[in-house]
Amino acid sequence: MKKKVDPKVDEAIETLNMQDGPTRRRLLEGAGLFSATAAASALIAACTSSSTSSATSTATSATSAATSTTSAAAAVAGNFPSTPPWQFWFVNHVTTNLFFVPTQNGMADAAKLLGLPTPKWGGSTTSSATQMVSYLDSAIAAKANGIATTVIDATSFTTPVSNAMNAGIPVISYNADGVVSKGVANIGTNRLCYVGQALYNSGVAMGNRIKSLVTTPGEVAIFIATPGTGNIQPRYDGAASVLTPAGYTVKEIATGALTSQEEAAEKAFLTGAKSTLKGAFAVDAGSTELLGPSLASVGLVGKIPAGGFDLTPGTLTAINTGQIDFTIDQEPYLQGFLPTLYLYLFNLTGGLVSPPNTDTGLTFVTKSNVGPYLNTKTSYEGSAPPPPTLVPWSGPIQNPIATSST
Hints:
Layout: H1 7-15, H2 21-30, H3 36-47, H4 55-67, H5 69-75, E1 88-92, H6 101-114, E2 120-123, H7 129-141, E3 146-151, H8 158-166, E4 171-177, E5 179-181, E6 184-186, E7 194-196, H9 199-213, E8 219-224, H10 233-243, E9 249-254, H11 259-273, E10 277-282, H12 285-297, E11 306-309, H13 313-320, E12 326-329, H14 334-349, E13 358-359, E14 363-366, H15 371-375
Parallel strand pairs: 1-2, 1-3, 3-4, 4-7, 7-13, 8-9, 8-10, 10-11, 11-12
Antiparallel strand pairs: 5-6, 12-14
């Protein structure tokens, strides 16, 4: 019995203005592709073939595409040439921290977009450079096609990054890029580029915001998970560079690498200092998320200004309820997506397209603009699980006149 091609497929043939439409129809019917779903990949493959190709040769191509859709998608991204399944590795200092959920989503999304396997993720849960270097060495031994790593100090990563580069493995740093002393960077590696926030400058911006909230100099606490590490110490230093010369007494309070430790450390300090403290702030995601509840527990909400960094769900809730005044966004999703894209382009072009240093930005989030972050649950911000979703924009795009450029 003669079977018919699905009307949707027939419509697609006409819409695509295929001059050899009858041949396409015979091809799809002969290949047994009668439904729109089954014929989709075959139709895509057929679209690119010559109108003068024989039905027999095209049928072979179409049937192959229909039965090998997954492998074809993994082999070619857009109109780029087919590539090997390049395996990238991400080395991280706090692999289980909520802040890096969007980063992991970003690297996975970029890999999927490019037809590559999801990058490997590992390192340390406690900012141990030794553990991170061990994981980095594993990537080198496995002949990774590219490595992205946080560089949390200026010495531990010098040799392993050099070893990777000498082995022909491109290395990019993200989120942390060595240390900054009095505004002067000590990177310590020969990585190709850095993708992340300008950390010292973000601290300076925070310091200026603190001055606007604490108008009379006095004692200010800045909580920090791991003093001395390259991902957050530059922020404290930047803030202190603004506040100390202006007469503020800035206290650097360590809270610990594990989120489970941080709230207790904050409460202990706040309890002892609440009679003299004029402001409480934080420079890392965990310390910021727990700052609002800690202030509430000692009766300081609404009595002193407070703020910090990053967009974890607890931080956004604390801003919305008035427990803290602001947080600073650094786009963690881009810190996973862009290194993956850059490593892909480096491999694709044999290094002719060299990755650029990329500042992922600095955005103050306050009660006046926190609404969209709270009301839109997406994998881009880590407030919803993958897959990524379309988030429509509506209305004018408000942005001040630019004052700086690269």
